[in-house]
Structures are given as C-alpha cells and as structure tokens.
Amino acid sequence: MSSISATFTAADTDLSAAHQAQSIWRQPRHGQRLTQVDAIATEIPVALQYNGINHAVLLATPTFLEDLALGFSFTEGIIRHASDIYDITLQQNAQGYVVDIEIASACLNQLKQRRRQLAGRTGCGLCGLESLSEVQRDLPMLAPPIHRYSPTAVFAALDQLRAKQPLHQITGATHAAGWADLNGTIHVVREDVGRHNALDKLIGQLLSQSSLAINQGLIVVSSRASFEMVQKTAAIGVPALVAVSAPTSYAKHIAEELGLLLIAFGREKQFSAYSHAEYLTEEDHAS
Hints:
With 287 residues, this protein is α/β, with parallel strands linked by helices. It contains 7 helices and 13 strands. It has a 6-stranded mixed β-sheet. A 5-stranded mixed β-sheet has the order 5-6-3-4-7. A two-stranded antiparallel ribbon has the order 1-2. The radius of gyration is 19 Å and the shape is globular.
C-alpha cells in the first residue's frame, strides 16, 4: 500500500528509536545526590500532510508511524476505508517526522470540510477544532456483539496488556492499546507517549489486517476512558472498550448512545461496567 523512505522501527522488536539514555540527578530523601543514566521515552513532532496539505502536528513516539497515519486518518473521518490511502511516505528531519499521506480525491473534499490546524499535545485530542459540532462524529450505533464477553476474558486481556508493554517497562512513560479476542488473548499491542496515538496506531494496524474478526473482540487501553477513546473504538466497529483507569461522563454517555460496552477501573481483581453491562456473561463466580 505504501512506500517508506525512512527507517521504520517496531516497538516490540527494536526499541532503540523509542527511548533515549540520558544523564539525570537522583536525590534520595536521606543522602547525597547521585548522577545516573535513565531511559526516557522519545517524544517528537510528527507532521501529517494529506496530498501535500499540512493538517496536524502530533507529539508521538517514532514507532509504527504508518499505523498512526492510517488510524488517525480513519478515526478522524478523513478516509472511509484503508483503501482510500494510496501511499504513505515518511521523511525524517532535524525536527521530527513528516508523514505525507496520499488519499483518494473523494476524501480530499472531506478533509477540506473538516480542516483543522492543531499543535497536538500529549493527551490532547481536540486541539484546533473550530466548532463544537466537530467534537462528536456522526457514527452509526454498533450492532450488539454476536457473543457476550466473559469476565474471565476481560481479566485475561488486562493481565496480558500489563505484560506486553516493553517500552513502558523501560521508561514508565508510555500508554498502550491492544486488541484481544473473545478468550482475552491479545493479538496486537501498540505503545506511544500519547494515549490517543497508541489507540490510533492499534486501529491502523487492525485496518491493515484481514485475518482478525475485530468486531468479535475488545480493545483494552492503559489509560483513562475519555470520549475520544470511546469514539475511536466505535468508529472501527469494536463493541467493547476496557480501560485501566477512570471514565468520563461524556465517555459513558457516548458509549451508551453508540451501543458500546464500556469497562473502566480494570484492575487485577475487579472492574466496573459503565454502559451496556448486558454484553457481559454472568459466570466465573468461583474465580
């Protein structure tokens, strides 16, 4: 689908581009200050261009940038299908990366209608929107899942996500998003300094795969459940979002409206369902 003109680093195979070793000063509560080397997560500007038109600048981890471009384009409503992207080219310079995305001409008008210039910040998904009407996308209600979700599968996905974040284990500074099947087995994980970026990277990869029945699984994220995370999950047609941290009121409202099972405060021993708990089975009492 695309040609890559810069080194492409996979976060789960080569973490060298995703973190930097730098000297720091560590001060114990009692004792002398020490000079040590610490691993710091890489955060650089990533500029997205569509058919040569500057659109957005994100602060992101420089891994899986092709996935990020595809996922962002889809969840922002710029493209309708992965096939609407004809080419993705990455160019690295002293400031960061420029990602040039060639999209179908039919999508270019959509882009101009939703045109925004944003200077993305870590954890910020709405910078630069020009009106309140742009906040919530017009998405169809999700069909109820074919099979209900077992609490055991939810806990299994949460456990695996904790174990499948190599960059977070090194730096402690990144978020992760993963897709798990109905057994709770995680098949894909993406990490990034930004929670929205991590989810967009995951969605970009899911859009690239034809072997996964993504509507028969769930997305699990290491962050809080904001409305943007709910909206992105619904956009790709996954009926369940599991978050490690808290939800927001708007996230709960949108999840109820779109027919999405929203689970938050996903911990080792319990979780809380905030919308459409009827999608969960009532088994596993003994565990």
